[in-house]
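Need residues for this backbone.
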């Protein structure tokens, strides 16, 4: 049964809410409850994600958070006790315009300066290592061998189990319908299962983040956008160690998924919505592009597909931290398509902010909510 009071209420049982719960409990703040509206945890974007984990970002804070997170994913079994099937096959970014080459050259230098072992590749080298890729129009590529992919639901489950063992309580089928505030301070949450009094409420509601913001009168400029994924039948022609390959110009990506392949592409023309239906005519475009880039895909057969939601902000950076004017209200939202891979760092950051007032591990100035009113910087440019 839902308690009448908790020290912290976390809204959203996705990977970020659960990572935050775990990190808070590890710091000794154990009277924490996680509220999830669906029947099970990781039912939102987390369970629908491609599971990609990369460190190749354009901003320093994202590179640092991703490098930290990769270390945590590598040791997840030892530290958290869950096998997350982390396959470090690398991420290969294919670049086909001068502008992309310039952007990635800058990012490559920044990544190297931070100690990331990323490689700059000429098209001939790409062809040599991955002969199936058509490189005629490719100008350059970058490859980081410690990137890869893992199972997001297992990561979420691992954090949930550890959090529970430390005293955290997780309630599914419990939707937050309102947040009570008084004199600019959070007092508690209204839910479909009753009221819970709490001085701290954390918004990790993924694509629903702005709706939670509205409950305290704040406009969080993160909005949901449909993204689709398609899975092929067994395709042994492409070997298991094939990297997550990103055709950056076309927002198209591919990786192995079991014996088959997983392909996705972002349709930047599609407006914001909560639509999660699969559009099979879009699948044809994804496959068509795939055949252009990797001609042997002509033999591949798509077996299934699904759609989930990205939560996108105007600068493709998340909002992490307190929201000014609403004491006790914290967010970790708007991850713009890279929220799974950063989740170990995100949970740590929020737990530091809540228990110590600030993050000691990362400089997260770029993630402050105030930036939307102050004027935005360049933001993250490696967005897929
Ligand atoms: C197709 C696709 C591919 C992706 N690929 C990648 C990738 O390769 N790598 C990567 O890092 N990221 C990827 N992402 C993004 C990634 O999935 C998200 O950034 C990440 O899962 C966000 O986790 P979260 O915990 O913040 O949100 P979510 O997993 O969405 O969790 C939020 C939860 O809050 C719950 N909730 C919402 N409102 C309420 C309420 N009022 N009351 C109670 N509960 C509520 C929801 O039901 C949901 O379960 C992808 C996303 C999609 C859709």
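Answer:
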């Amino acid at each position: 049964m839902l308690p009448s009071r908790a020290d912290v209420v976390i809204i959203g049982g996705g990977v970020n809410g659960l990572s935050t719960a775990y990190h808070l409990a590890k710091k000794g703040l154990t009277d924490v409850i996680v509220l999830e509206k669906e029947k099970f945890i990781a039912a939102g974007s987390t369970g629908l994600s491609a599971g990609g984990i990369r460190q190749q970002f354009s901003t320093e804070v994202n590179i640092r958070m991703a490098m930290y997170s990769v270390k945590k994913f590598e040791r997840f079994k030892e530290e958290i006790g869950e096998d997350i099937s982390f396959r470090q096959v690398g991420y290969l970014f294919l670049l086909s315009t001068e502008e992309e080459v310039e952007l990635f050259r800058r990012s490559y230098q920044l990544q190297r300066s931070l100690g990331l072992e990323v490689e700059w590749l000429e098209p001939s080298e790409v062809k040599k290592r991955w002969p199936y890729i058509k490189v005629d129009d490719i100008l350059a590529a970058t490859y980081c061998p410690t990137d890869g992919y893992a199972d997001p639901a297992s990561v979420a489950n691992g954090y949930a189990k550890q959090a529970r063992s430390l005293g955290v309580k997780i309630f599914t089928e419990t939707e937050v319908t309102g947040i009570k505030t008084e004199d600019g301070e959070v007092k508690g949450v209204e839910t479909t299962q009753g009221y819970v009094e709490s001085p701290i409420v954390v918004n990790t509601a993924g694509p629903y983040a702005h709706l939670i913001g509205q409950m305290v009168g704040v406009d969080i400029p993160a909005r949901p956008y449909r993204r689709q994924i398609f899975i092929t039948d067994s395709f042994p022609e492409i070997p298991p160690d094939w990297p997550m390959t990103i055709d950056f110009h076309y927002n198209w990506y591919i990786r192995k998924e079991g014996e088959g392949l997983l392909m996705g592409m972002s349709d930047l023309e599609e407006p914001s919505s909560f639509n999660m239906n699969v559009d099979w005519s879009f699948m044809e475009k994804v496959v068509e592009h795939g055949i252009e880039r990797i001609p042997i895909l002509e033999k591949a057969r798509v077996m299934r597909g699904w759609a989930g939601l990205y939560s996108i902000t105007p600068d493709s950076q998340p909002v992490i931290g307190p929201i000014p004017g609403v004491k006790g209200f914290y967010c970790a939202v708007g991850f713009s398509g890279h929220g799974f891979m950063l989740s170990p760092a995100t949970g740590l950051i929020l737990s530091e902010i809540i228990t110590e007032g600030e993050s000691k591990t990362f400089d997260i100035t770029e993630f402050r909510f105030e930036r939307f009113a102050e004027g935005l910087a360049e933001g993250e440019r490696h967005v897929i």
